[in-house]
Specification:
single chain, mainly alpha, 0% strand
Length: 68
């Protein structure tokens, strides 16, 4: 039986290169999330959440990140 999808909308797969240190820190965060969550909480969940936070902050700043 396949796992149910975590994302209920169209998705895009992206291959990400990161340092071992970055991954280990994300893994620690995911482990803490798993302990306080009723479901699975993986490194990929941490990354997706971080992306959402970044996008929200970027939109609130009206794209000032790229303006001089």
């Amino acid at each position: 039986m396949p796992r149910p999808p975590k994302i209920d909308e169209p998705t895009k797969t992206y291959n990400l290169l990161m340092t071992v240190k970055q991954y280990e820190k994300l893994s620690e965060i995911a482990e803490q999330g798993q302990l306080s969550s009723l479901g699975q909480f993986a490194v990929s969940d941490v990354i997706r959440e971080a992306i959402d936070i970044y996008i929200e902050a970027f939109e609130e700043e009206d794209n000032e990140v790229f303006q001089e």
